[in-house]
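Re: the 192-residue chain
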Amino acid sequence: MSHIAVERNRRRQMNEHLKVLRSLTPCFYIKRGDQASIIGGVIEFIKELHQVLQSLESKKKRKSLSPSPSPRPVLQLSSQPDTPFGIGLENFKELAASCNSSVADVEAKISGSNVILRIISRRIPGQILKIIDVLEKLSFEVLHLNISSMEETVLYSFVIKMIGLECQLSVEELTLEVQQSFRSDAAYANEI
């Protein structure tokens, strides 16, 4: 076979594989139709799926260790709890807190001047609106939102930013406030 035919066959196979990847990936991950955008979108999608898988595995492990999970949140703080978002944010490389319950796992981490907020829960109709409402009431602006779901579990990934410097809210308090948005639905979710 000539070099030209081999190269033509290789390009055809690459294009077929890219079409398959594009068809398997949700459209909002792929911004443009070029090869680099398709591959970048697929990588982003696989990372999100990996996070959901890890979360489900840890939730399964927690349930197997504790057959009757407590609805009360358990806090795990990785830095000072009384450090506000608005003061000296650039001095902190990574300040994080998580608040986990049987209803939802909430994790917040400061990254530069933004906050990365991840929430994993069962799919509850209208819950995303409640979360956004809480964030707006706390003077946060949503810069980016990514929603991934698998069966009845959903992962909300936010990148949020403070509006102004008047907020004296710690990362721990943010996770608790977001966790509270699930409280009214806890009884509903247990009925299902």
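The first helix runs from residue 3 to 24.
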